[in-house]
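Notes to self after the call with IL:
- keep both proteins in one doc
- input above output, always
- annotate only the second one for now

Protein 1:
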Amino acid sequence: MTEQKWVQKWNSWIAPKPSKPGVWRRKEGGFLVRGRAVDSRTGRMKEVRFNVEATDAIEAFTLLQSELKKVRTGETTSSAPMPTFSAFAASLFEDKVKAGDIRSASGRGKWALTLEHHLLPAFGPTLMDTIRHADVARWRVRMAEKIQDGTYSPHTVNTWLNVMRVILKAAVMQLELARNPMDGIKNFDTSEHVYTEEEPNSLTVQEMPAFLSKMRALCPQHFAFVCLGFFLGHRPSTLRPLRRSGPTPDVLLDEGILLVRQSHTEGDEVMATTKTKIRQRITLPPILVDILRWHIDTQLTTDAMRQSELLFPAEDGGFRSRSALKKPFVAVAAAIGLKKHVSPKAMRRTFQDLARAAEVKDIVTRAISGHATETMQHHYSTVAAEEKKLAIAKVIELAGVRKALPEGASALGGMHGGMHDPENKKAARH
């Protein structure tokens, strides 16, 4: 055997032989991953073996390949491999729920849907330390195209961006990433997706009587609920869990007191607080007390409703659905010939406008509706053209502009007519 063949045979005996990496599902959950690679620092074969909580075998295999690459390139490996986006996001979501950072059922639903349908398909198998600013920017461009073709609204996509922002900010701190890929990624402009003068999603003072009258005629089971919404400005989520009986009732009709201290979003789950974290004790005027008594006496039509502690139970005694008022609002609007669209959110917006028309002070309005800030109160307000016209007229009257008009001039044509006066023409030429 020649010397060259001996050398080749010798090398075949001593040369490290990389093995095919493997992934095995564990009975207790997760995967066992194992593989070998040549350590560039020692020239020897090194085994990489660890357990990982991954969503599927592909994700586990991706993590293994990342660790094997570190062995081959001489990078320092840690006992805990870098997680993928899906693994980190799922863990962070679980931690936030346990810590109470995401408390409501709707909040959990928002996160779950955002991850499942939008973020995981785009970033799921990607290792957290390999997500770049350009990756997020490209995804944002794709979402911009969806906004332009009307598939999504900017408000919706901004919700997804905010969830992504929370995840990557946590990753920067927990995984000690070099930089945040979300830096410089802005939310979409929503200035063109707002309520307009033609579509304010609010009823005027003149439209209210017909709307309420038709609501009582067509949908009497919703009439008292709608009255509280319009006259207190509260969200449906704070009205659905109101209790009329039981050990801790929220409606004390003999005292004319309403306690607003809970919130209902999804299913049978109730939060022991409101969205704004404000608990309210509201003294109701007699007419609202009478409406609630009428509702209890006449609109609890099934045994389950009468046995329920809720003030506004569904027919089975449970909570009304979030969409319970959508069809009634559409039906009533059509019946009275309303040309604009109004949704249940119109109740909260209309209350602000009614209170302003009644010249209720802002601080009192916020104390009733539960708005935490003046900014949010303004956000839910719609200032109509007639209201602006009257306000301008009041300012003009206060300023005493009539005294500056020529004697005998009218408010409509005084300035124009006055300029025909010879003295005024002379003054104008000079």
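Protein 2 (the one to annotate):
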Amino acid sequence: MSRENVDLVRTLIPPPEIDFAALFRDDELFEQAASALEELIDPEVESLANWMGGTRYVGVEGFRSLWLDWLEPWTSYHAQVEDLIDAGDRVLALSRDRGRRPDVDAEIELTASSVWEVRDGRIVRVAFYTDRDDAFEAAGVKR
């Protein structure tokens, strides 16, 4: 089942040309995306913002709130998946993100990671990390 889990996570992460700031801030765009992916995400999905001490959000709107909190200082934000690592019922996603802040002329590049937990073909939990070592540990994957 874990190959299917990797494919599921790949489906849920927007391609690099999609601006996360535009997607999550626009009510209509977000609603369209959420409706299209409704069957793939548990309605009570738990999202964790580990850069904020593990702040917990619940549901699809909670997932959106987590992203809106993260995106507050960004005028644009894009993610490029570098690797998706099979960890059984979890998938470790490694990405290289880039964004622009209103007070900076150049784009800023960041490494990011997330651990997606799948149960019965649906995402039930996703935790976001700014430290890749923490993400590897949470996924139970050796570097």
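Annotation: DSSP finds five helices and six strands in the chain. The radius of gyration is 14 Å.
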